[in-house]
Structure formats: structure tokens, C-alpha cells
Amino acid sequence: MIITKTPFRVSFCGGGSDIADFYREHGGCVLSTTINRYMYLTIHPYFDDQKTALKYSQNETVENLYDINHSIFRCVLNDKHISGVEISSTADVPSGTGLGSSSSFTVGLLHTLYCYRGKYVSKARLAKEACQVEIEKLGNPIGKQDQYAAAFGGLNFISFHKDDSVSVEPVVTRRETQKQLQENLVMFYTGLTHDANRILSEQKKNISQKDKTRNLLRMCELARQMKQALEQNELKDFGTILHESWMKKRELAGSISNQRIDDLYRCAMDSGALGGKLLGAGGGGFLLFYCPKERQERLKNQLRLRPFDFQFEHDGSSIVYIGDKYWED
Predict the structure, then answer these.
(1) At residue 291, what are phi and psi to the nearest 5 degrees?
(2) What whole-number distance in Å separates Cα of residue 56 and Cα of residue 2?
(3) Global pTM?
């Protein structure tokens, strides 16, 4: 048996600029971190080597890989020509909550299958192939940030270049600064889930509009300012930048926010938060706020939402366990 774990991510600034329609013309960038919440995948030979068993939110057992319902499983297993195995996935957080779970799954699945074949691949290759699966082969209207965040791990400034290349630059800051940043971040679960592809499809259609382009260009500028502030170990403007970025992002598509989310955000700002955002594509999931520690109790009392504790993570997709049968025959 082989077990891998792949982290989820929190994107602070720049989301949307990782969509090809934008970065191929303007270039894009995102500042994000992975957190200690994971997608776990296990693989081992199935007792009937003529069949492939998959366990996720549903159970599937097929003889022909093309009969698999789960689109990512079907695409990747056919590409890698791997059958006769049992693969199980489990996650710390449900899908549709804005933490990049789909891309963490894709990165983790690729990592698991390569390990099963006895092959080492770089983090960059895992991320690139995950993008190819989700964007090119399956045609999902998503960007590239989640795949690179999940593969590399850590607090990174990720740049998306006009030639489709991607560079991942760790944000170098003092340990005390990163500790203070983490302590001042508070996350809440709204209880709402979303269809990221639907929201991103609307956003993608709007990218060519001049006002949306201006918003994305400003969000990239804010991401660079946030990176610079962290590198200078200066957090006083972090909340302000986070707030402005959210105000710009929510204008990219009508479905990114809603009255419920707007009311919660306004309540949080009135209760001591200096800035925040809805994570992921929008419409639901987790709300993240930058709020000084001394104001957090009031914030929690006023919002009356379920807090979600997390820590920064630095490893990216990794192998947890390799059992007696190391490699596929």
C-alpha cells in the first residue's frame, strides 16, 4: 500500500489572474499558502486484477477504465494505463468550499500513481500535469494557482507568464512575522458550498471587459505589495490590501458574492477585522479575515459562525507511507 497526502491552500491575493485568457495577455500572479488540511489517497493492488475499485464520495468497481464516472480518475488512470488497483480518497475538508480540493486531488492522484510505478517526479511536473488534466483534457474553466500551490506547498508568490510557464517563488520572511501573520488570520465556515466551475465560467467570460481587466491588473499589483510587505516583515498594511483585493474580486462576476456573504463581511469589519475575503471562486465556503488577536473574540461572537483552525504547511504533496509491495510489477 502507498499513501500520499496533498495540502489544501489559502489564496490571499491575485486569484483570477491565473486564468489563461488573462495571463497570456497581461501576465498574472498570486500570493498563497498551503495549510495543514489534506487530501489523502491510498493505492494497492485489487484482489481481482481484472477490475479497478475506486472509493471516494461514491464507490465504483469497473472492468474498463473508460466506464469510470469520476472524470479525473477516468482521465488519469487511462493516461497512465494503470488498472487492477484499489484507490481510496479521503479529505479533511469537503469539496466546494474554496480551498482548492479538486486540484489537490489531481496532484495527489498523479503523485500516488507515479509512486506506484516506482517513479520520482518533481513538484513542477506534478503541477504542470495536473493543469493539463483539469484545464486542457477535461476543459474545466479554472486557473493554475491551485495545482502549483498543492504540489509545492508553503507560502509562495506564484507568477503566470505569457508563454504559459509558471514560476514559484517562496516568500522569505522572519519566523516571527509568519507566526504573527498566522495568529492574526481567522477562518470561518459559512455553511454554503459552491459550484466553482459555474462561477469561474462567468468570470472567464467577463475577463475581456475593460473594467474587469483593470480589476485583475490592480489585484496583481496588490499581490506584489503584499509580497513586499511580508519580505520587509511589515504586517500593518496586510489587512488593508486583503480588503481592497476582495472588493476588486467581488466585481469580477455577479455570483462571486451574495447578500449573505456581504452581510457577514460587513459584520466582521464592524467587529474588528481589518480585511478579509471569501476563499476560492466565491459563492460560499470559507471566509478568511485578518484580525488582531485582541479583537478576535468579539469577531467570533458577532459572526456566530463555525471557526476553522489551521496552521501553515510547508511540504506540499508528499508520500506518507510505502508498504511491503513498493512498486507495480
Answers:
(1) -145, 125
(2) 16
(3) 0.93
